[in-house]
Specification:
The complex is a heterodimer of chains A (263) and B (255). Chain A has 263 residues and is an alpha/beta fold. In chain A, 38% of the residues lie in helices and 26% in strands. Chain A has 2 domains: 148 residues, 3-Layer(aba) Sandwich (D-Maltodextrin-Binding Protein, domain 2); 98 residues, D-Maltodextrin-Binding Protein, domain 2 (3-Layer(aba) Sandwich), CATH 3.40.190. In chain A, the strands form 3 sheets. A 5-stranded mixed sheet of chain A has the order 5-1-6-13-7. Chain A has a 5-stranded mixed sheet with strand order 10-9-11-8-12, with helices on both faces. A 3-stranded antiparallel sheet of chain A has the order 2-3-4. The longest helix of chain A has 17 residues. Classes of the chains: A alpha/beta (263), B mainly alpha (255).
């Protein structure tokens, strides 16, 4: 399957080189991240896995299009989309006003709140006053950078290239707290061995300006047909049970509109 | 002017608004680059002497060190110090952790210093080995001991000869210092990446960063031209007013 995708991609780009741009359009190139478990990560052999990855593949199947997944570091995601390195981003990207100035989004495909994580024995609160002078780790270019800078102006916001690095430095004590998607924090840090001495600090953070309306699939401005196709495909996956199937292999509850159970 | 600026496809207002951040980035870049150059330079002098004098014990040690640090990328060295070292409980609980190895700035300084020291050692070793034999013989003839010969004749002469090559090392180190931004430091590139991360505008952040680096390199090359003019004056060709045939005489062979 993978080999076929590559072959058809090669064939498509060869054809486009022969001035047949329509042929190239048949392969939909999707930008993914690969360092954001459980949404996207890489197996030791380099295979991409995760919720985003499977959703991307399911969307392609639903739209009956050949797809090629292209890995891209998070903070270069939007520039790469605009530079046509790929045509859509399926990488847990929240729909926000600031991003909408640069790109367009499909309907949301999931929505989870953000929360702070700090050591269990932290002697400060998750409020702007409590975090004054503290170091908060966030992923650069994520919605959390916007929110952290707005909400905690007296804290030192420490920026990382990937969410994995944020957790690693939190575990090493280089930052006092971190702000991220609550689900990510639960699944890939708090429930892991490294996160044993850590816990959520304070409640949910939602903010339309920074966090927007949920996580959608980004496309370049003006690509309205693709955008509509993607939105339609998301609805179809919700209805035909494929979404639930993928959801259940990763999460114990439906993340589409929801929040972690028991919180 | 207003209309002219509006043709530039950059959000200049955003850059102006955040220029204080960029200036702070310039400060971080400069202090990391020049502190590591200073410390690395100081470290390299004894190491270069050990290499040039083929010291039985220190020469192979220093040679091994320069092999390792010139043989691996600076990014890998920085990651090893920042991420690698923190993995060990022993280090995290030692006195080295809290003020030093837990801080990104110190990790960058250590990596950059060790890296530039390796390059400077080899550069200086070459300059020392290149000392004209005549200078050494004259020093011996005037009764200089080994130590004072090194201090008063060989090293000053080697430093002068190393200036042009060293200007490359300074510029490479400045450009290499962008690695600081990968371990959370807000150097010039770090601020550029911050802007891109915050407003999703890649050109604004990175072009500003590029211009700032370019200006710093301009200053560095200007300073080195001044140094060369001052310290290598005796090596520059001067118009002596002597008839052309004198200049075309065969150059005396180096003794």
């Amino acid at each position: 399957m993978f080999r076929r995708t590559i072959l058809s991609a090669v064939a498509a780009s060869a054809l486009s080189a022969l001035a047949l741009p329509l042929a190239a359009q048949d392969t939909l190139r999707i930008g993914v991240e690969g360092a954001y478990p459980p949404f996207s990560s890489k197996e030791s052999d380099g295979t991409l896995i995760g919720f985003d990855i499977e959703i991307a593949k399911a969307l392609c199947a639903e739209m009956k299009r050949d797809c090629e997944l292209i890995e891209q570091e998070w903070d270069g995601m939007i520039p790469a989309l605009k530079a046509r390195k790929f045509d859509a981003i399926v990488a847990s990207m929240s729909i926000t006003e600031e991003r909408r100035r640069q790109i367009d989004f499909s309907e949301k495909y999931y929505k989870t709140p953000a929360r702070l994580v700090a050591p269990k024995d932290a002697d400060f609160e998750g409020t702007p006053e409590g975090l004054a002078g503290k170091r908060i780790g966030v992923q650069r270019g994520a919605t959390h950078q916007c929110y952290a800078e707005k909400m905690f102006p007296d804290a030192e916001i420490v920026l990382y290239g990937s969410q994995d690095e944020v957790f690693r430095d939190l575990a090493l004590g280089r930052v006092d707290a971190q702000l991220s998607d609550s689900l990510i924090a639960q699944e890939s840090f708090l429930s892991a061995e490294a996160g044993g001495d850590y816990a959520f600090l304070g409640g949910d953070h939602t903010d339309v300006e920074c966090y927007g309306e949920g996580v959608g699939i980004a496309v370049r401005k003006g690509e309205d047909a693709l955008r509509a196709d993607l939105s339609k495909a998301i609805t179809a996956l919700r209805e035909n049970g494929t979404y639930a199937e993928i959801n259940d292999t990763y999460f114990p509850f439906d993340i589409y509109g929801g929040r972690p159970a028991g919180d | 002017m207003e209309t002219l600026l509006s043709y530039i496809p950059l959000d200049l207002a955003l850059i102006a608004e955040n220029f204080d951040r960029f200036l702070y980035g310039v400060w971080v870049t400069l202090n990391l680059t020049f502190l590591s150059l200073l410390l690395g330079g100081l470290l390299s002098i004894p190491m270069a002497i050990a290499r040039a004098s083929k010291h039985r014990v220190f020469n192979p040690l220093v040679q091994g060190y320069t092999y390792v640090f010139r043989g691996t990328p600076l990014l890998v060295q920085t990651y090893l110090i920042y991420y690698g070292v923190g993995q060990f409980e022993v280090i995290r609980t030692s006195f080295l952790w809290d003020p030093v190895l837990s801080s990104a700035w110190w990790c960058a300084l250590i990596a950059f210093t060790l890296n530039t020291a390796a390059y400077t050692t080899e550069l200086l070793r070459g300059a020392i080995a290149d000392t004209p034999t005549g200078e050494v013989e004259a020093a011996i003839a005037t009764g200089h001991s080994d130590r004072s010969r090194m201090r008063r004749i060989i090293l000053p002469s080697a430093f002068r000869r190393a200036i042009p090559a060293y200007s490359n090392e300074v510029i490479f180190m400045l450009h290499g210092s962008v690695i600081a931004s990968t371990i959370t430091l807000q150097d010039i590139l770090g601020v550029g990446r911050w802007l891109n991360g915050r407003y999703y505008l890649a050109y604004e952040g990175f072009i500003t960063a590029a211009v700032l680096y370019f200006l710093i390199v301009l200053c560095i090359t200007w300073a080195f031209r001044r140094f060369e003019r001052r310290y290598l004056r005796h090596l520059t060709r001067r118009d002596t007013g002597i008839a052309p045939h004198a200049a075309s005489l065969p150059t005396p062979e180096r003794v």
